[in-house]
Amino acid sequence: MRKRSFFIFMVSFLISLFHTKRTPKHRPDPADPMFFVGTWQFKDHRERVHRLEIDPDLKLLIDGKDMSAKVSLLTRYELSYVDKFGYKLEIRGNEARPIKFYDESENYTYDLQSANEIEQSN
């Protein structure tokens, strides 16, 4: 009788072990590509002002030149590109808007300002 109850216990244990419900993995909030769309300005380390534009199709332009960069990552607060030379270009944001631009080729992070805000203040 003991062997039978032990056997039943082991079988039920193994079945429950392999059939436990797995908790779903946490999914990050869906990214909204329109969050990054707009025109931004930044000053480089030589104090020159540059204009960064992101179109609704996420095409990246810097100073009016198409960077021929491809989107490599899009999350809620980060948009990452790889340019034609293989360097990473990242735009990072907070809850309100994009605030930083990282250029791997120069290994430098720039502060972004909305071009509309700057033009209105002048």
UniProtKB/TrEMBL annotation:
Name of the protein in its database record: DUF4828 domain-containing protein
